[in-house]
Amino acid sequence: MFTIKLFLLTGVIFVSACNSIGQLTTTQIFVVRHADRETFDDLNQLGLTRASELKRALLNAGIDSVFSTNFVRTKKTVTPLADAMRLPVLLYDSNPQLIKRILTNSAGKTLLVAGHSNTVPQLIKSFGCRPPFDNIPDTQFDDLFLIIIDQKGTNGLTGNTCKLVQIKYGAITN
Q1: CA nearest neighbour of 119 among 50, 43, 31
Q2: What is the C-alpha to C-alpha distance for residues 22 and 6, in angstroms, rounded to an integer?
Q3: What kind and span of H or E run contains 95?
Q4: How confident is the model over 56-100, as pLDDT tens digits?
């Protein structure tokens, strides 16, 4: 818990320092796979506990928007945090649609996105970062990724850089 708070505080200080140096827009995107599931589309008790742990971990991270696919398991993963912050859960159908929406409407914001074992690594790649694996194992639910996208404007030209941080949260899974 202390490690996550220290990490988040360090990120906020870094972003503030970079923004004061020049034209820099930093977008932070927390990405999770849905929590532990009971059936194809619902969470088990461990998953419900993990969703509460996600809320606890990110409650003070300054989340501006919460995105989820239209599956019960992804929505239930992010709903405790969204409810606590009085934010709607915004649904998305595909990674390309989500990426366009984020880059167009959410530059400079902090977001949470819930996806799936096969879509999370692709989302990370689509933003220009290298995921630690191509697919998340079926039994692994404890990864929380932070994608940091810096958009720099220099003489009308824009360049993006992507940084990826992998964090573990909740009970350990394989």
Answers
A1: 31
A2: 25
A3: helix 95-105
A4: 999 999 999 999 999 999 999 999 999 999 999 999 999 999 999
pTM: 0.83
Instruction: Give the pairing of strands 110-115 and 89-91.
Output: unpaired
User: Tokens 């810096």 appear where?
Assistant: 150
Are β-strands 24-33 and 143-154 bridged in parallel, bridged antiparallel, or unpaired?
Answer: antiparallel
For residue 173, CA distances in Å to 45, 121, 135, 138 come to 14, 18, 15, 10
Q: Are 123 and 92 in contact (CB under 8 A)?
A: no
Rounded alpha-carbon distances, angstroms, from residue 71 to 42, 78, 80, 148: 8, 11, 15, 26
